[in-house]
């Protein structure tokens, strides 16, 4: 399970796999875990204040230790790996500086992390500490642990991750530590991988990060196109077959077929009206299932202001799962499907 989870995170864009340990519970086999990950070609960091765990992990190939403060700084010089320096408490700047000075004197490679705090618990002040840290140590490697925001905020993580990585990019913070535990943040690794490229390009070219990375627009689409009401009426008069075309317009689901045009906000009402229309007798069980599936997508699109195109998957950015085309001719995403019948009803 560990190897599979680590490989999944690496496939999503993680550079190092951080092994988190449980406080007051020593992981006797941590060295074996690190070795197994290294054998799989993965880079590893160890997240523990237990010196025994850290020493085993470092001997097995862990290359970064999270974290070091006054509690364990005196032993870290023997680990021969990079460490993340943190203050004893988030507000304790003096302990932070003492730890940094100690590590520098003993030539220990380090990244500095002033600690990001959750919203409502000192978030803005902690951001200010990152700014101050960068000014005080302009050439230092830095790290920001962003899980305190994405995991502890009732909001989808993608937009939050973009904003946090934008802050990191502008401050020259080269590393982030993210988690993907709570369900609304389960795709954080992939989001951060896309976001770091987006903000790097935006900052490098001094432009806003707009119209550059559509895969991070998940819930709502960039723009919507809808047929005008008169176009739907004209379509109903022009077509001769009994295939049913589904569109959304004006917050309603529209179903159009030969001499038939019904619409309603509720897909169940649309289906009832179809069954009572001229095309009703031609709707068999398989066709009804297809129509129900398509109208469910249309209802979702109406709810979230997304583009709906019949027989196409809704666009969820990098989370999109492409669908097979079941009844209409294959089109490119964003194009309106043709009226040509490709399968029998």
Word description of this protein:
This protein is of the alpha/beta class. Helices cover 40% and strands 13% of the residues. The chain is built from 12 helices and 10 strands. The protein has helices at residues 2-12, 30-39, 51-60, 73-76, 93-105, 123-136, 147-150, 157-171, 188-205, 229-238, 267-275, 285-304, and strands spanning 16-20, 43-47, 64-68, 82-85, 110-112, 143-145, 175-177, 245-249, 252-257, 260-264. The protein has a 5-stranded parallel sheet. Strands 8-9-10 form a 3-stranded antiparallel sheet, with helices on both faces. α2 links the parallel β1 (16-20) and β2 (43-47). α8 (157-171) packs across α9. Mean pLDDT is 92; it is low at 329-345.
Radius of gyration based on Cα positions: 27 Å
Number of strands: 10
Largest sheet: 5 strands, parallel
Spatial order of the strands forming the largest sheet: 1-2-3-4-5
> Structural class of the helices, strands and pairings?
alpha/beta
Globally, the shape reads elongated
Topology overview:
Elements: H1 2-12, E1 16-20, H2 30-39, E2 43-47, H3 51-60, E3 64-68, H4 73-76, E4 82-85, H5 93-105, E5 110-112, H6 123-136, E6 143-145, H7 147-150, H8 157-171, E7 175-177, H9 188-205, H10 229-238, E8 245-249, E9 252-257, E10 260-264, H11 267-275, H12 285-304
Parallel strand pairs: 1-2, 2-3, 3-4, 4-5, 6-7
Antiparallel strand pairs: 8-9, 9-10
């Amino acid at each position: 399970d560990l190897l599979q989870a680590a490989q999944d995170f690496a496939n999503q864009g993680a550079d190092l796999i951080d092994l988190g340990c449980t406080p007051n519970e020593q992981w006797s086999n941590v060295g074996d875990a690190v070795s197994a990950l290294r054998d799989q070609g993965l880079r590893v960091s160890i997240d523990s204040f237990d010196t025994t765990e850290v020493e085993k992990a470092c001997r097995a190939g862990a290359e970064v230790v999270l974290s070091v403060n006054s509690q364990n700084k005196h032993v870290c010089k023997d680990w021969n790996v990079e460490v993340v320096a943190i203050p004893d408490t988030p507000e304790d700047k003096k302990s932070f500086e003492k730890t940094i000075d100690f590590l520098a004197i003993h030539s220990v490679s380090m990244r500095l992390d002033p600690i990001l705090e959750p919203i409502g618990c000192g978030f803005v002040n902690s951001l200010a500490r990152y700014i101050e840290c960068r000014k005080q140590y302009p050439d230092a490697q830095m790290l920001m642990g962003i899980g305190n925001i994405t995991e502890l905020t009732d909001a989808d993580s993608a937009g939050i991750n973009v904003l946090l990585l934008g802050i990191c990019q502008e401050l020259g913070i080269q590393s982030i530590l993210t988690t993907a535990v709570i369900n609304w943040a389960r795709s954080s690794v992939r989001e951060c991988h896309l976001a770091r490229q987006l903000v790097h390009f935006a900052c490098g070219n001094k432009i806003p990060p707009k119209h550059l990375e559509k895969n991070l627009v998940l819930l709502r689409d960039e723009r919507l196109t809808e047929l005008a009401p008169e176009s739907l009426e004209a379509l109903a008069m022009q077509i001769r077959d009994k295939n049913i075309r589904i569109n959304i317009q004006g917050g309603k689901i529209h179903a159009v077929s030969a001499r038939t045009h019904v619409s309603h906000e509720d897909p169940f009402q649309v289906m009832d009206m179809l069954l009572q229309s001229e095309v009703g007798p031609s709707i068999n069980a398989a066709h009804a299932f297809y129509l129900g599936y398509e109208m469910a997508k249309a209802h979702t699109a109406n709810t979230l202001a997304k583009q709906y195109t019949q027989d196409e998957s809704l666009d969820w950015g990098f989370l999109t799962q492409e669908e097979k085309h079941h009844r209409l001719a294959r089109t490119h995403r964003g194009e309106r499907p043709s009226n040509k019948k490709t399968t029998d009803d």
